[in-house]
Design brief:
The protein has 274 residues and is of the alpha/beta class. Helix content is 38%, strand content 21%.
Length: 274
C-alpha cells in the first residue's frame, strides 16, 4: 500500500451486467467517458474496462477498446485497465488480441479456470503463460485475478518461470457463484498465499461488496467497486451511478485514515509506463 493512501478501482460495466438490472449501466462510448470522469472525481484512480457494441453486447474488438480508451484519455487522467477475462464464451485468442493492438497500461490476467454460476471460463496454465508473455512483451502491468485459492499458487508458477515482473498486483474476486465466497477467513488464506511484497485489490461480488471493502482496508489492501461487481447501493436499493459506489468507498477509506491515491501516484507505485 502507498503510505496513507488506498487505490480505488471502478469496474463500471462488466460483460454480464445489463441495463435491465440497473438502467444507469454505462454502455455507449459517451456513457463510459462520462462515468470515467465522475468516478475519477469521486476518488477512483483505475477504471477497469469491458466494452460493448452499440446494441449493448459484450465484445473483445480491439477497435472498440481503442475508441473508448482514447475518448477517456481525452477527458481525464484515470488509468485504464482492460479486461482479458472477456465474457463467457470468448476464446483466449479473442480475449488477448487487444493487448498487442492497443497496449494499455494495465490489464486483468485470469489465473485459472473458474465456475461462473452455471457457466465456466477456461484458463489453463499454458493459456496463462501465453497471456503473461504477451503482457510482458507490451509492458502491460497485470492484475492477477484469482477466483479460487489455487489460482494464487498458479500465478506463482508464472513468477517462478520469469513471465511476470514485480511489483505483483493481485485481484481477489470473491463471491462469484460456484467459486470462493467472501469471508474474513478466505481473504486471509488468499493473502497468506501471496508472494512476498505483492499488492492486492479485493473485489466482493454482489452482497459481498461492502464487507469486502472493510476487509480490504483491515488487511492493508485496495478496493474495487462498480456495476460489474454489484448494482446495488444497499439491500433492494439500486445504486444511482458507479460514482455513488466510489464515493462511499472513498468515504469509508477516509474514516480509516486513508486518502484515495491519484492515478499518477498509482503509476509510480505499480511502475506503469504511463
Amino acid at each position: 500500500m502507498i503510505d496513507g493512501k488506498i487505490i480505488i478501482t471502478c469496474a463500471c460495466t462488466g460483460a454480464e451486467t445489463t441495463k435491465a438490472q440497473n438502467p444507469a449501466l454505462p454502455v455507449t462510448v459517451e456513457e463510459v467517458v462520462r462515468t470515467a470522469m465522475e468516478v475519477r472525481a469521486a476518488g477512483a484512480s483505475i477504471l477497469h474496462l469491458h466494452v460493448r457494441t452499440d446494441d449493448g453486447k459484450p465484445t473483445a474488438d480491439p477497435g472498440r477498446f481503442k475508441e473508448v480508451i482514447e475518448a477517456v484519455r481525452r477527458k481525464c487522467d484515470i488509468i485504464v485497465e482492460i479486461t482479458t477475462g472477456g465474457a463467457v464464451g470468448d476464446t483466449p485468442e479473442e480475449r488477448l488480441r487487444p493487448i498487442g493492438l492497443i497496449g494499455p497500461e494495465m490489464a486483468s490476467l485470469d489465473c485459472g479456470t473458474v465456475n461462473f454460476g452455471d457457466e465456466f471460463i477456461v484458463n489453463t496454465l499454458p493459456t496463462m503463460r501465453t497471456f503473461a508473455a504477451e503482457f510482458r512483451k507490451h509492458k502491460v502491468r497485470a492484475t492477477l485475478e484469482c477466483f479460487d485459492l489455487g489460482h494464487v499458487y498458479a500465478s506463482r508458477i508464472l513468477i517462478k518461470e520469469g513471465l511476470l515482473e514485480a511489483p505483483y498486483h493481485y485481484g481477489f474476486v470473491l463471491n462469484v457463484p460456484a467459486a470462493a465466497p467472501y469471508s474474513v477467513a478466505n481473504l486471509e488464506a488468499f493473502c497468506q498465499a501471496l508472494p512476498e511484497g505483492a499488492d492486492f485489490t479485493v473485489m466482493g461480488i454482489g452482497r459481498a461488496s461492502l464487507p469486502a471493502q472493510f476487509g480490504a482496508i483491515a488487511r492493508g489492501g485496495q478496493i474495487r467497486v462498480g456495476f460489474e461487481d454489484n448494482v446495488f447501493f444497499s439491500k433492494g436499493v439500486l445504486a444511482k451511478s458507479n460514482a455513488e459506489l466510489v464515493e462511499r468507498a472513498a468515504r469509508i477509506s477516509h474514516e480509516a485514515g486513508l486518502v484515495p491515491a491519484t492515478p499518477d501516484e498509482v503509476r509510480k507505485y505499480l511502475k506503469l509506463r504511463g
